[in-house]
């Protein structure tokens, strides 16, 4: 198939949806498909490039999250759509709505993905837990974009249930975004800077809804506080605030931005993985961590899909509660033999999230959309 991925921001390594799109495109090509991207950013042979749409007053905040919106150019969008056998829209914004409009005009099959929770956006302005505001975003997204599709991909059953709850009518395909096969059970000796320390890692943007503050605030409640070394892999608007917050700890947290190989190397040395986020549509970073053989400790948030990965209650803690996170951390550190056993269990559980299987399921969704379009 000739598959067009439509996504406002593709060229970043600090945005989960963009990273998933890059991996998705690479594996689709490995499966023999042609893939091009309709997006912003630097020109490339595999891209149809649009200019950035700058949002007055908010552009710096948007950039701090590793994102930019695309400006609409109907000529470029039409050229991209005409090239494709199927159009897959990965975000709920103006670009994707325009691509869907053109796809319908050109009688091209199209599908959509629901990766971005409204809460991910509203959290940036302090409204992440205001239900009526987030409900309104679900309604707007549906009216502007998703109600026009017959097939929607979500990365988790949690997100599928949210769409049904908010009245979405399309056929929903629950397909994990999938992890790279490089993430497998791996243990390595600690590098000198980590020797004698308990290494606890969290991966994700430094943003309010990710709740790295809960992890930092949990350390003083742990009996192992003097030995714990936190490492946060990611960057974002909360960087300065979290650096300041971390100064109270004996071992100040490290904030790193890593390549995939560097991340695997870090995870292979770590003792535990923590995922404190209040809101997640899936959290690939958590799967990657337990795939390498780390027991995860996950915020049991009602607005997150990530608790689905916990194999039992010992890997869950009350969201937003540093003292309860410290309790869970201490339990695993107090029981090293059980932790070692469960590391193998988690690594085995991660095998079902292989990205090649996810891509195969998405290819089937595309074929369904193409067949339906041929019958019109």
Keywords:
376 residues; 2 domains; 7-stranded parallel β-sheet; globular; Rossmann fold; 6-stranded parallel β-sheet; alpha/beta
Q: What can you tell me about this protein's structure?
A:
- This protein is α/β, with parallel strands linked by helices.
- It folds into two domains: 2-178 and 354-374, Glycogen Phosphorylase B (Rossmann fold, 3-Layer(aba) Sandwich); 192-353, Rossmann fold.
- The chain is 40% helix and 16% strand.
- It is built from 14 helices and 15 strands.
- The chain has helices at 16-30, 59-64, 74-83, 94-105, 118-122, 131-144, 157-165, 212-218, 239-246, 260-269, 284-291, 322-334, 336-349, 355-374; strands at 2-6, 34-39, 47-49, 52-53, 69-70, 86-89, 110-113, 151-154, 171-174, 198-203, 228-233, 254-256, 272-275, 296-299, 316-317.
- The strands form three sheets. It has a seven-stranded parallel beta sheet, sandwiched between helices. Strands 12-11-10-13-14-15 form a six-stranded parallel beta sheet, sandwiched between helices.
- Helix 4 links the parallel strand 6 and strand 7 (110-113).
- The protein is globular and about 65 Å long.
- 46% of the residues are buried.
- The model has no long low-confidence stretch (mean pLDDT 95).
């Amino acid at each position: 198939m000739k598959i067009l991925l439509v996504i406002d921001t593709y060229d970043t390594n600090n945005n989960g949806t963009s990273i998933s799109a890059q991996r998705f495109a690479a594996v689709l090509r490995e499966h023999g498909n042609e893939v091009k991207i309709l997006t912003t950013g630097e020109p490339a042979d595999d891209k149809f490039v649009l200019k950035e749409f700058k949002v007055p007053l908010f552009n710096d905040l948007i950039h701090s999250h590793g994102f930019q919106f695309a400006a609409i150019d109907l000529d470029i969008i039409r050229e991209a759509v005409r090239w494709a056998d199927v159009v897959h829209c990965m975000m709920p914004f103006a670009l994707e709505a325009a691509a869907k409009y053109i796809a319908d005009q050109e009688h091209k099959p199209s599908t959509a993905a629901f990766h971005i929770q409204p809460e991910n956006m509203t959290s940036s302005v302090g409204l992440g837990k205001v239900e009526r505001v987030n409900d309104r975003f679900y309604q707007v997204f549906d009216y502007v974009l998703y109600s026009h599709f017959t097939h929607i991909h979500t990365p988790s059953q949690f997100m599928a249930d949210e769409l049904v709850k908010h009245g979405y009518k399309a056929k929903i395909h629950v397909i994990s975004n999938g992890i790279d096969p490089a993430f497998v059970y791996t243990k390595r000796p600690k590098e000198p800077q980590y020797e004698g320390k308990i290494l606890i890692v969290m991966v994700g943007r430094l943003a309010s809804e990710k709740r790295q503050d809960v992890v930092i605030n949990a350390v003083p409640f742990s009996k192992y506080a003097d030995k714990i070394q936190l490492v946060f892999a990611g960057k974002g608007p909360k960087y300065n605030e979290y650096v300041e917050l971390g100064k109270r700890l004996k071992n100040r947290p490290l904030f790193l931005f890593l390549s995939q190989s560097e991340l695997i190397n870090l995870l292979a040395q770590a003792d535990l993985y923590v995922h404190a986020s209040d809101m997640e549509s899936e959290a690939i970073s958590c799967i990657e961590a337990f795939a390498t053989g780390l027991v995860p400790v996950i915020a049991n948030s009602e607005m997150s899909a990530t608790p689905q990965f916990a194999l039992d209650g010992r890997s869950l803690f009350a969201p937003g509660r540093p003292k309860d996170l410290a309790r869970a951390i201490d339990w695993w550190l107090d029981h090293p033999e059980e932790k070692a056993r469960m590391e193998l269990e988690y690594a085995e559980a991660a095998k079902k999230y292989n990205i090649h299987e996810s891509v195969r399921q998405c290819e089937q969704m595309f074929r369904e959309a193409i067949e339906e379009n041929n019958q019109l």
